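Thread title: Can someone regenerate the structure for this chain?

I was given the following input by a collaborator and told the matching structure tokens would be attached. They weren't. Posting the sequence so someone can regenerate them.
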Amino acid sequence: MTNKTDPAVMQRIAAELARREGYPQRDYSDKHAKAAALIAVEGHPLQTLARENDALEALLARLRETCDEALLAQLSELAVHYAKKGDLLYPLLKVRYGVAGPSDLMWTTDDEIRAELSALTRDDERGDARQARLDALLRRVENMILQERHVLFPICAVNFTEDEWRGIYRDEADYGVCFGVERAVWDGAAQVSPAPAADGEIVLPGGNLTLRQLTALLNVIPMEITFVDDQNINRFFNEGPKVFKRPQMALGREVFSCHPPKIEPMVRQIVDDFRAGRRDSVPVWMEKDGRPMLVRYMSVRDRDGAYLGTVELVQDMTFAREHFSHAKNE
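Best answer:
Regenerated them for you:
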């Protein structure tokens, strides 16, 4: 027998230890007090999550008391609560603070609970076996509530910065309401500080990109993209082969000059409707060289709703027709 250890294994262990040393060291002695303080703040993300758990506990009690399986549909809303944890809490704890337990253990349990709940909702099984499965599921949900209350939320309260909580508050607006818990307005959620930009980067609300990255990103989107500004001037075409040709010489020219007389009135009407706010999107389906094409005209507005221009998106839908035709014949 040899005591030699694989150098590659030793290297991975050393790298892991080095990463751990680089994570901030936290004092967890008052973690429950810190969590309670944040939960008491009106509109704070931790308060919303805690209130969702309170509503979930009430729903579980009703389900146990009445055995009304119609409540399972409402119970399925826990998928929203679990999605917020999985998207907003677990990864941040693991990547930024080296706290991997919730991500490695609780996330897996969340997925198992959702899968079993979905299976119970679909299955026609009745009787003692089904009741046993349901009872086991409810116990797991109740246990997860306790884990969040006593483990996850306090860990988050100790580690997350004010700016990170603001980011979570901003992002949670994209998730649906679950168990009837509407999130309140958090007065402390001022504008989130943007990520610092390196030299040459373009700062956007969703992140920072170099011009090279942004150009490549726009070119890889499987659509022909045309942007016309609020003065009806062609400002941008993405690169690549196009079904509807876009000569570079058309840039800087009025968009109406690029359409034949029989089409121009329709284009003018669309742009006028967008400018006036009567419409925001116009889809046009057509055949081009035997291929189905979807042309979308969409108004482009700023956060205040002011009209900035019109984008035209041309997409070859042949792939969709072939996909559904193949699926139908299987």
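Residues 114 and 122 are 12 Å apart (CA to CA).
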